[in-house]
Amino acid sequence: VKAGPRRILVLNGPNLNLLGQREPEIYGRTTLAEVVARLEALGDELGVAVEHHQSNHEGELIDRVHEAMAEPVDGLLVNAGAYTHTSIALRDALLGAGLPFVEVHLSNLARREPFRHQSLLADAALGVVQGFGPLSYELGLRALVALLPPR
Ligand code: CA2
């Protein structure tokens, strides 16, 4: 049987649903729906299927990672929002799933408050793309797809 296209799950954490609607000086004017639409188009170009899930709830994000493991999803593009800096539980879920993931951020965390300088996910990620606004996601998707193990 022929395998279908590889599946990438884009996971967005708390408050990212507000993208484009609040704090445009930090996060820009592009909405989350527009970011996802761009990633779907890029996915078509790269030959992967892009799925998206946003949640403001830590446990829901973790549940989605567990589902990804079973589905199976081939890799994840993760902007965990503020959970990046706080969630050992999300880190455990990502490590437990054993799926390759790329961490992305709209803003350059190094230029922001000290409490945003630590990521609890970064050392488990294939890599981190940050500071390029919505382009961080596109670059992250390209990198993730390029680094997926052959099947
Ligand atoms: O820069 C990023 O992508 C962040 O993950 C965004 C998180 C922040 O807590 C991280 O430190 C860095 C915040 C997302 C909040 O998104 C908003 C977007 C528009 C308006 C208000 C919040």
Describe the protein.
The chain has helices at residues 24-27, 32-46, 58-70, 83-86, 88-97, 134-147; strands at residues 6-12, 48-54, 75-79, 101-105, 127-130. It has 151 residues and is α/β, with parallel strands linked by helices. The protein is globular, with a radius of gyration of 14 Å. The structure holds ligand CA2. Ligand CA2 binds at residues 15-16, 18-19, 22-23, 27, 79, 81-82, 84, 105-107, 116.
List the helices and strands and how they pair.
Layout: E1 6-12, H1 24-27, H2 32-46, E2 48-54, H3 58-70, E3 75-79, H4 83-86, H5 88-97, E4 101-105, E5 127-130, H6 134-147
Parallel strand pairs: 1-2, 1-3, 3-4, 4-5
Number of helices: 6
Report the average pLDDT across residues: 97
Described by strand count, sense and barrel closure, the largest sheet is: 5 strands, parallel
User: Which outline best applies?
Assistant: globular
Instruction: Give me the side-by-side strand order of the main sheet.
Output: 2-1-3-4-5
Q: What letter string, H or E per element, gives the SSE order? A: EHHEHEHHEEH
Bound molecules: ligand CA2
Radius of gyration: 14 Å
Helix content: 25-40%
| Residue windows where pLDDT falls under 50 for at least 5 positions | none
Report how far apart the termini are: 14 Å
Q: Which structural class should the secondary elements be placed in?
A: alpha/beta
- Sheet-strand content, in percent, reads 15-25%
Q: Give me the count of strands.
A: 5
